[in-house]
């Protein structure tokens, strides 16, 4: 029998709210207050999110981020820097004990990302999962040279025409899996690379070229402009098909909204951003 999960599209919010709600949903699932949930959202202002373990001052040109008017926030999940601008962001929050969820991060990643795969297919793309085949490719994954996400397809990344088209990250806390990621509608590569610190321009340009070779946005692949609405419709259906679930809407209670509010303060704080 098809299982029913919660679904919530929170639309456009600032980075602190976006990260606080993902963490709050993890807490609600952990406490059994809500069923597994899929959430869609966008960002206002456009924001650079950095991975939990990234060293902000060493890797990011903070002045450049402010100069460009972008938000800046640290995620709960690992991985590298992502510019959230013209994209649809998704999160999937599900108990680790869920019968459909494999024990390993990589395999769970594949299962959850099947929702993305089906969404891309509904938009007419010939998407598939990347599997690093050679020993050399697998070794490379262990030594990411760049602070920029999207520059290398790793295990089970979504690929179209050989290029990475969605980037995701996962964390497991309190018995719950949280996976969230970006589905790029368009990407401004110059803007993105300006915000990272490189040893020199030569290295920056080399990394930029590598990025262009390896990553792509939906509208670079499509003959017609694909709107955010079209993306939301396709990926909502894609998750239902890929995970064999149906959706029911999620409405948060006043006390749950209070919890989101208090978590926002954490993401706003320099303590968390700089991880002092």
Automatic annotation (TrEMBL):
Which Gene3D superfamilies does its entry note?
Answer: Bira Bifunctional Protein, Domain 2
Concerning InterPro entries, the annotation shows: aa-tRNA-synth_II/BPL/LPL, BPL_LPL_catalytic, LipM, Octanoyltrans_LipM/LipL
Q: Where is this site: Lowers pKa of active site Cys?
A: 164
The gene behind this protein is lipM
Mention any additional remark.
In the reaction, the free carboxyl group of octanoic acid is attached via an amide linkage to the epsilon-amino group of a specific lysine residue of lipoyl domains of lipoate-dependent enzymes. The reaction proceeds via an octanoyl-thioester enzyme intermediate.
Q: What is the name of this protein? A: Octanoyltransferase LipM
UniProt GO molecular function: ligase activity; lipoyl(octanoyl) transferase activity
The EC number of this protein is 2.3.1.181
Pathway linked to the protein:
Protein modification; protein lipoylation via endogenous pathway; protein N(6)-(lipoyl)lysine from octanoyl-[acyl-carrier-protein]
Instruction: Give GO BP annotations, semicolon-separated.
Output: lipoate biosynthetic process; protein lipoylation
